[in-house]
Design a protein that fits this description.
The protein has 296 residues and is an alpha/beta fold. It folds into three domains: 82 residues, Arc Repressor Mutant, subunit A, CATH 1.10.10.10; 86 residues, Periplasmic binding protein-like II (D-Maltodextrin-Binding Protein, domain 2), CATH 3.40.190.10; 103 residues, Periplasmic binding protein-like II (D-Maltodextrin-Binding Protein, domain 2), CATH 3.40.190. It contains ten helices and ten strands. α1 crosses α3 and α2 packs across α3.
Length: 296
């Protein structure tokens, strides 16, 4: 076991606050001590580790490269300590870790989370929105299954995806026939995380091999692609659940409607039988059941 008896904890806390704020005065205010106390703590820490952490004039010091790295590391460490204290104080069942794709979180889940927290105020919901596998264990994960994939034993179906071609009214005007003709001339808005969605749409509409290639604009995430469509930059293929509100209020139009794709959204529970996950999954399925279907 490492010997931590000589760790300068007070100096570490003082430097972390100074590095985070970028000013010793702000750190002193946060910790309710004098500016001189913060300065002495930082000097003591620099002597302890043998390298300068701040440089420049005394009245306007700035972090050295080593100080920036050390400051980031200390902030992460203190955040972990705070999390541990909260878990011990409240109990593990008060924290609910949920993982899902970033666009799903931004455009569907977060706007509805207030309803869950109002119904279950004891839970502290923490979202992990990395578009890769979560790096830490989560309680609930909302997963998109590709075509042909079977539903794992610890997952249950939420809904089948529906895709549609969307465009801003300003980009394509006129009758339905005119709008459809205009969208074929618009730039195609594509998403790196789903590069073949236009081919999927062609297959769903029985137009395989009839693509008329136009200019293409590619974005990193679906929420950026949708934002581009909202601003009239072109036409996009997007899932109904991500654009339903914009279609309902007329900010987007879908001249071909929405068709079921072969993708399915499922909810995965890491540790079944826990009340907090049962409450969240139950609420999630009710919210999806109440979600309006696209107009035919």
């Amino acid at each position: 076991m490492k010997d931590r008896r000589n760790l300068p904890v007070a100096a570490l806390r003082a430097f972390e606050a100074a590095a985070r704020h970028g000013r010793l005065t702000a750190a002193a205010e946060e910790l309710a001590v004098t500016h001189g106390a913060i300065s002495r703590h930082v000097s003591h820490l620099e002597a302890f580790i043998g390298t300068p952490l701040f440089e420049g004039p005394r009245n306007r010091p700035r972090l050295t490269p080593e100080g920036r790295v050390f400051g980031f590391a200390l902030t992460a460490a203190f955040d972990q300590i705070e999390d541990a204290l909260r878990i011990v104080a409240k109990g593990d069942d008060s924290i609910l870790d949920v993982a899902c794709l970033s666009t799903f979180a931004m455009r569907w889940l977060i706007p509805r989370l207030h309803d869950f927290t109002a119904t279950y105020p004891r839970y502290d919901v923490r979202l992990a929105t990395d578009d890769r596998l979560p790096r830490t264990q989560v309680d609930v994960q909302i997963v998109v299954l590709p075509p042909g994939a079977s539903i794992p034993d610890n997952c249950s179906l939420l809904f089948r995806e529906q895709l549609g071609l969307i465009v801003a009214p300003s980009a394509a005007k006129g009758t339905l026939t005119c709008v459809r003709a205009e969208t074929a001339k618009l730039p195609r808005l594509e998403t790196r995380t789903r590069p073949h969605v236009w081919h999927e749409w062609s297959r769903l509409t029985s137009q395989d091999g009839q693509d008329t290639s136009s200019a293409t604009r590619i974005f990193d995430h679906y929420h950026l692609t949708i934002e581009a469509a909202l601003n009239g930059l072109g036409a996009a293929i997007a899932p109904w659940h991500l654009v339903a509100g914009d279609v309902a209020c007329g900010r987007l139009i879908a001249p071909y409607g929405f068709l079921h794709s072969d993708y399915r959204y499922v909810v995965k529970v890491e540790r079944p039988g826990r009340r907090k996950t049962e409450h969240f999954v139950g609420w999630l399925k009710e919210a999806i059941a109440d979600f309006p279907a696209p107009a035919l």
